[in-house]
């Protein structure tokens, strides 16, 4: 048995990270261009960017021949922080996601321990033992809640400048959480940025790869960011996120490893374009879609 890899994209690939950014691509144009680039699957992105009325959103998506992979929780911080805020954001994303046919909730633990623009440290880069216990317990709670109350899967996204970013931290997170309720959004770009062995993680934790974000990084710029102690946002502004197949990890062996898992997966392109020319994301999206589909393995 081989996996069915369902290829999608999300608002990040059109330069949208915050729902209220006045520079961003208008949401109607984003949906039009997403479909025009050849994608058929959509991750909803930051809550409030797309319409939040379920009926209207469902109509807009269906009119373009799109379907929803899942919703995105971001902006509330990590589960070790203000858990009341995290829980409230998770619930409103879950309600909308379920209403429009999504099956996943991607949890992106931002903001992290640094300011993306200034590089200043907002908190320690390493969690203490007590914070780790809270992170693991709260992540399980979120996963159980999403499964039992909403019928959705919890996909935790390791993120640069959050305290689950390096491979040992990702492994500790997985080893300390219940696989029935917690799995990864395997963001291969963030992991490559922190020099993780992405294929090794897939091989060691095959059952914990529940969802995938595709992006590539310039390894030289990633190394420079580490050497100069730059925040991830500063590295992205320098161009560390590159268009496939220009960076790492290499996609052909990655797609082979994902296919070999033997189960269906959403594989969502998340191109961190910044500084972004908001007039030109469509050609990039088309080139990326064309390159990925040329590799085979996608439904």
UniProtKB/TrEMBL annotation:
Transmembrane segments: none annotated. Pfam families: AP_endonuc_2. This is 2-keto-myo-inositol dehydratase. Residues 32-274 form the Xylose isomerase-like TIM barrel domain. It comes from Actinoplanes utahensis. InterPro entries: IolE/XylAMocC-like, Xyl_isomerase-like_sf, Xyl_isomerase-like_TIM-brl.
